């Protein structure tokens, strides 16, 4: 067998394991869509992978690509499939960590509820392709200064899981399409921009559709919304930075104590100063 056809195992709800033979060179679109896969290994000879191959697989945790594959890779044990020549991340799992060498994302989490409710796109990503975070269950997303383009249906929430905020750290508004976001996102979500850039984003044909544009400022540090700063807030911020689970009520806006648009060790230091 050399080809796995389009939608070959699509909607096979009981399929949790698969072993692809070394002879496979092509995996068709939606081949494993909406299955119970927990792990998959891409053989060395695979040189074509269709769209949405691993979409809708909520149990998927581990993705590996054979080290001898010259078309795709899973560098740095990232648990993802990367198109090597283009540094383009095309499929991901719940355990994916985006390598710094990746510059673009395309359909990585399409219809997969893999992401934490608040997701920070790593710095260095230039392009977020069509459908990349389509129905990904996001409450908020932070886009780095490097992002230049956001595709069609790229950050698309639903009525069940609406997007509450989009934070953009780029000084020049990234290229975007009207349908990069839903109309509900435009009317209900908050667009956070760097200080002094409100007018620039309001003048943009797409970003200007956001009804609520707010400049990023220092967060309160009260990430658990208790009404006061405690060591519990500090520990939650540390957990968030380390990638540990935090309550759904955790607020990255409050955690950004130094107001740079990111939550990192600098905010821990700033929060310690507040507590002292």
Compact summary:
With about 280 residues, the protein is α/β, with parallel strands linked by helices. It is about 15% helix and about 20% strand.
Structural class: alpha/beta
What is the beta-strand fraction? 15-25%
Helix content: 10-25%
What is the averaged pLDDT score?
A: 90
First-to-last CA distance: 66 Å
Query: What sequence of helices (H) and strands (E) makes up the elements?
Result: EEEEEEEEEEEEEEHEHEHHH
Number of strands: 16
| Molecular shape | globular
The major pleated sheet works out as: 6 strands, mixed
- In terms of per-residue confidence, which ranges show pLDDT below 50 for 5 or more consecutive residues? none
Radius of gyration: 20 Å
How is the secondary structure organized here?
Blueprint: E1 3-4, E2 26-27, E3 39-42, E4 48-49, E5 62-65, E6 72-73, E7 80-83, E8 88-92, E9 104-105, E10 118-120, E11 127-128, E12 140-143, E13 149-150, E14 165-168, H1 183-188, E15 190-193, H2 198-202, E16 212-215, H3 231-241, H4 252-255, H5 265-275
Parallel strand pairs: 1-2, 2-4, 3-5, 8-9, 9-11, 10-12, 11-13, 12-14, 14-15, 15-16
Antiparallel strand pairs: 6-7, 7-8
Helix pairs in contact: 3-5
